[in-house]
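User: Can you help me understand a structure? I only have the sequence.
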Amino acid sequence: MLKRFVIAICILALAICSVYAYDNTPPDNPLYFGTCFLTVDTDELGEVTIYFPLSYQSGYFSWDGSTLRNVSNSSITWYYRSDTDYYVRWSAFSEATYRYPNGNYWTTDDLTITDIISTNVQLIEQMEYNVTTDSILTYIIIFLLGVIVLILFMKKF
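Assistant: Let's start by predicting it. Here is the structure, written out as tokens:
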């Protein structure tokens, strides 16, 4: 009976706390070291890697499975390099655009991100609450250890 109870609680804890994690393997020959990066697939440019300062690692980007948005109250403009230098920009609460040189001028177009391949940026994928999944897992482990200790004390007396 006790084994079944403990196994059921462990399975429930794993089911509640399971989250989808993105590959966080850094790109080969990164342009910058010690930065955040997003390697994404786009309709317009193919696969690109965008670099950000570490201050943008958490709380800035929302991904709903089809759209990457800036959910902060400020614009984010950063850089990536391929054969041509590009600047990628997210205005506050918007989707990405990119700028590229076109003769003597810069042209701006929408950037449609279709998939996130690899990143070390923490993406917001659902409404966040005061208790994060990391802290919930800690509370569940502490609760389970408390139940086990309580059961051991009850068996002793």
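Now, to help you interpret it: The longest strand covers residues 94-102. The helical segments are 2-17, 133-156. Let me know which part you'd like to focus on.
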